[in-house]
Amino acid sequence: TDERKKHGWIKSDFGKTTIIIDPDDKTLRELLSQKEAIHVFSGIGSFELPAKAFKIAVKNKLKIGVILEPFNWIGWKGKLRFFKYFLLRLKYNQSIDFLLTIGNIGRWRYEKVGFSKIKIFDWGYFTETVDTKIIYNSSSIISLLFIGSLDYRKNILSLVDACLSISNDKPFILNIIGNGPLECELKDKIKNSNTINYLGTVPNTEIFPYISQSDALILPSIFDGWGAVVNEALMCGTPVITSNNCGASVLLDNKERGYVFSVKKNNLQEVIINFLKQLPYSIDEKQKIRNWALKAISGEVAAQYFIQICEYLYEHKGNNPVAPWIKDKQ
């Protein structure tokens, strides 16, 4: 989409996968006549075409899975969303074979709504594995990085305010990559700063060198279903700070791979200050992060986990699968 292009995204290579965009009714009927196929939908009734296909799949009693991000529960609109999913659960729980719930709070949200616990499997977003070189920062200046949309939800201005007001013995810089509605306000805030650099938009293919050369990535979202840039950072061996309302915070373990701050406590600045004391990480520490990412959140590992879910549900093979990124937390 044009919006993705603005943020530096390029067209993906899907390999041998068949991609059908905006299928006509005949194509849709053909796809939904495959009784042995497992039909996985993104959301329930979120968009017109998938909602139409989902209803046909339910009517035809097909094998159905649904990927669900945690809904934004903040404010009165959040209460309405809870009620919406409560009604969807009443209507479709018996027809859905499994839910793939995104992030640290996805499972909890949909269990609260009332979906059967045995149908819920932890899920996430996954990025391409890139062969990047582990880089150690030998400079006396710590390098922090933000990548994302410059908007209210990503909480970019709060991050800037926190960094501008830090008085710390260990010098640091914050590099910002992205664009969005708060770009002018951001530029105004940092115009006299030697600590914060705004780099504008960088193509997605050129992001990894910036991540690899940084000592830490910060994603301070007020709410984020996941936050794929966290995966990209960990794949590069770069630790992360993110919020407890960011789905990908489930990948962090405090100290080894990064830290999680509380949106409610508003303790982002405190967490940054404490983290600066531990930076930079050594080559061995960064390599350990990358090794974990390769075995826990790579596309290949996620695909194998999905196969295990399907075999467990439809062929009764093995035990109840546990997400690879959660196994070491149990």
The number of distinct helices, counting runs of at least 4 residues, comes to: 13
Structural class: alpha/beta
Q: Count of DSSP E strands?
A: 10
Largest sheet: number of strands, sense, barrel closure: 6 strands, parallel
Q: What percent strand? A: 5-15%
Seen as an oligomer or otherwise, the chain set is: single chain
Q: What is the radius of gyration?
A: 21 Å
- N-to-C CA distance: 39 Å
Helical amount = 25-40%
Mean pLDDT score: 90
Low-confidence segments:
none
Question: How are the strands of the biggest sheet laid out side by side?
Answer: 7-6-5-8-9-10
Shape: globular
**Helix-strand topology string:** HHEHEHEHEEHEHEHEHEEHHHH
Describe the structure.
It is a single chain. The chain is 38% helix and 14% strand. By secondary structure, the protein is of the alpha/beta class. It has a six-stranded parallel beta sheet, sandwiched between helices. Strands 1-2-3-4 form a four-stranded parallel beta sheet, sandwiched between helices. Helix 9 (228-235) links the parallel strand 8 and strand 9. Helix 6 (156-164) packs parallel to helix 7 (183-190). It is globular and about 65 Å long. The two termini are 39 Å apart.
What's the structural blueprint in terms of helices and strands?
Blueprint: H1 2-6, H2 25-31, E1 38-42, H3 48-59, E2 63-68, H4 75-92, E3 98-102, H5 106-113, E4 120-123, E5 142-147, H6 156-164, E6 172-177, H7 183-190, E7 196-198, H8 207-212, E8 216-219, H9 228-235, E9 240-243, E10 258-261, H10 268-276, H11 283-296, H12 299-314, H13 324-327
Parallel strand pairs: 1-2, 2-3, 3-4, 5-6, 5-8, 6-7, 8-9, 9-10
Helix pairs in contact: 6-7
